[in-house]
Amino acid sequence: MQQKLNELGAALEGEFYADDAMRILYATDASAYAEMPLAVAVPRTVKDIARLISFARDNHTSLIPRTAGTSLAGQVVGRGIVVDVSKHFTKILELNVNEHWVTVQPGVVRDELNLFLKPHGLFFGPETSTANRAMIGGMVGNNSCGSNSIFYKSTREHLLEVKALLSDGSEVEFKGLSFDDFIAKCNGETLEAAIYRNIRAQLSDYNNQVEIRREFPKRDIERRNTGYAIDLLLESDPFTAGGKAFNFCKLIAGSEGTLAFITEIKLNLSPLPPPVSGLLCIHFNSVDEALRANLIALKYSPVASELIDRYILECTKDNIEQRENRFFVSGNPGAILVVEFAGNNQSEVKATALKVEAEMREAKLGYHFPLLFGNDTRRIWALRKAGLGLLSNLPGDAKPVAVIEDTAVAVEDLPAYIAEFNIILQKFGLNAVHYAHAGSGEIHLRPILNLKTDEGNRLFRVIAQEIALLVKKYKGSLSGEHGDGRLRGEFVEQMIGAKNFKLIKEIKATWDPHNIFNPGKIVDTPQMNTSLRYKPGQQVPLIKTVFRYSGQNVLQHAEQCNGSGDCRKSHLMGGTMCPSYMATRNEKDTTRARANILRNYLTNSTQLNRFNHAEIKEVMDLCLSCKGCKSECPSNVDMAKLKAEFLQYYYDANGVPLRTKLTAAYAKLSQLGALLPSVYNFLVTSKKVSPLLKDIIGFAKKRSLPKLYKFTLRHWLSKRKGYKSDKKVYLFCDEFTNYQDTAIGVKALELLGRLGYQVIVPEHYESGRAAISKGLLRKAKSIANKNVEQLSHFVNNNTPLVGIEPSAILTFRDEYPDLVDNDLIQKAHQLASNSLLIDEFIAREMKNGNIKKDQFTHEHKTIKLHGHCQQKALNLLGASQYILSFPRNFHLETIPSGCCGMAGSFGYEKEHYELSMQIGELVLLPAVRNQPEEVIIAATGTSCRHQILDGANRTALHPVEILYDALL
Fold this sequence. Notes:
Layout: H1 2-11, E1 15-17, H2 20-25, E2 39-42, H3 46-58, E3 63-66, E4 81-84, E5 92-96, E6 101-104, H4 110-117, E7 122-123, H5 136-142, H6 149-152, E8 159-165, E9 171-174, H7 179-185, H8 191-204, H9 206-215, H10 230-234, H11 249-252, E10 261-268, E11 270-271, E12 276-284, H12 287-297, E13 304-309, H13 310-316, H14 320-323, E14 335-343, H15 346-362, E15 371-373, H16 375-385, H17 387-390, E16 399-400, H18 414-427, E17 432-436, E18 444-449, H19 454-473, H20 492-496, H21 498-511, H22 554-559, H23 579-584, H24 591-604, H25 614-620, H26 628-632, H27 639-654, H28 658-664, H29 666-673, H30 677-685, H31 689-697, H32 713-718, E19 728-732, H33 735-739, H34 742-754, E20 758-760, H35 769-773, H36 777-791, E21 801-803, H37 806-814, H38 816-819, H39 825-833, E22 835-837, H40 838-847, E23 861-866, H41 869-873, H42 877-885, E24 890-894, H43 913-922, H44 924-929, E25 936-939, H45 942-952, H46 959-966
Parallel strand pairs: 2-4, 3-4, 19-20, 19-21, 21-22, 23-24, 23-25
Antiparallel strand pairs: 1-2, 5-6, 6-10, 7-11, 8-9, 8-10, 12-14, 12-15, 13-14, 13-17, 16-18, 17-18
Helix pairs in contact: 8-21, 18-19, 24-25, 34-46, 37-39, 40-42
């Protein structure tokens, strides 16, 4: 088979992988399942897909279509060839503004499609919580919807036409057909004709019609993804008089790639929603109260009605990004119902909200009714959409598990259904998380289980069986939007009846007689508690680490990644995570991939040093350690921390490379160079010597090397009198500012002095940032111990420690508490709480009235700011924004950039240089080049300023330089 796979790979225009590392990365999605695929294909053309179909048919294997891989029911997990269309099938092919439709390839991202459509006054309505990375192909496959399904329904209702390849490789087009066209389609000897004849025979049978209408979910339940949608096809012409034109798209939506391979999708579009949207965030004492109040809210035609329970609200407290989005929460509610109303102006929305509040108060439901508009609504939806990932943050091995999270019932049945649901869970001594789509009868319910134990594995299936019976009692749908996959496929027969199940098995056999397309989903599904990520009872020894992982171990930290794929968003969606994926669009370069490869080897390795695997190194290689995942990943996976840990133990087994040693010794080498800075600067800039140095070190020849300043900051301090004041502050003289950015340090000291502060620069060691970034953690630990011992005695809330370079001072906040010896933990935390960016300190003093606007120029200045990744990761960019907006007539705009691409030494390294520049070119460098000379470019990080200079030929200033120059 290996030879055949090699020949297949050579024949494709796209990429093809059969190595262990790539197969591991594609063995999971966002579900509880894991199964090693035979190979991974990334097709570039429709011909590639046809070749793959032919290969699968001839070699008795299968194809698993995949886009973003965010499925929750194991839809894209299997033993065949995973076919990833997310990289190359990303074109918007045609837009008809007048007729309100668009044709796209399956790899187009939902939110990116709407960015394209917005100038035309149109948008695609169904909105999943993963909409900033979910792709249209996956939305069709799962028949996705989301919070606004009350108004915009599901993907199925917007699917007009589909082009696809059938299992014999033939190309077909599915669309609405007249009666005559339908009959014509049934004629002939093609596979296409056979599938039309099959459905005609099934749905023309009166007994089948009766059985379908009796057994399928209630007609008024719009979220219905149980089995194939033959109940909806039955309501079309020619089977139901007056029905809509027959269209196999109804069946394709929700078929999970089991019937055909989609290559083009034509969608119906909606006009842009009304200009004003308001969220009524109603607080309740319990989930039951919220569900009863939901029935009142629905009387007033909301766009959405979404539930957030206390478990999720608790999880938001520990997430850096979502903590800021809790601003609207009052007290400790048992649940919040977020009800969205839209109108032409705020007055319309307020009037409706007041009616809702009045009726709820009369019914004694709800105790707090904040109504929010504008940017506040985006923050609330961000918190709600982060729910899935946030749930993974519970420490330990027990997690809220997707097993019965997708059930849908008639909305009027929801309070009673949830009450019975919770009684069932209580029988097993379990609780569940409740969140999401109250307005459409679907609450995402996740019991907390430990799937690593035999009992957890048993309960996983037992609970699914019990809840399936309950859903059937209410004539609901076991899947409302996440699909059957291999999680619920086992129960489809129970949900729709044996006779109907036989019909859908016949459909699968007719469409796909060789079982090529995504087998084991919807029909012929294996037992649902098999092929899980975690094998019950599997023992993993405690893995020794340098870092501490609060409340967990290193494996559990990697396992926090639940596969939700937030790291797959592009630069168009904003944020920092994940810069390498934004540039390459390769799954291998996501935070998720790195967590998956670590989890696999830390769990299954037979080596004493479980980190000692070249496959981990390969996948970790393009991690820039930007820390974006620390805040933007809802699961709080800190991949920079995990990468540093991995590197330390990998080097233990394989030795430390010269370049790594030299980079980690930046402070020591700079100290030597500072003895003769002019000689050092000549060597690093000489056209003859510099390339040789770069070759020896392993740096890119195109990258300029940083020069040393003519004197160090400490030398300048030794010659300076300084300012005396009762207001004292300590400055951390980091290694970058001391040797390289001395002029910035001088201006920072002068700025603080002239603003009335006495700045004390204590004796201390380097920050250890270079050692941490290169994985020399034991060296960094020694530095951290010394700094904490030395500085913790006098740094406090009244006399904080401030730093100029974010990557240096933030080691005190971010890494030191988890790095120092156990007896220094308390001191490290105390020091961390009083270690501030200089931007933070100045902003705090401005807000306290200690620094006045009158101390600065009134001249008009326009500033464009790029924030440092680690600053953004700790949600500290606001301080820089505040101080640069403080002087009168300063106009600040923040460049919507993620990582600059330099990331310390990453952008210097010869094998990473091109990627570094690609990342810079996504947003930052073009934005800088487009600014006129009079616009000031600001950047807090030394690496960022270097990248801007190299890539855009502009000198960026640190905010303290700008403020110093603005002093009167």
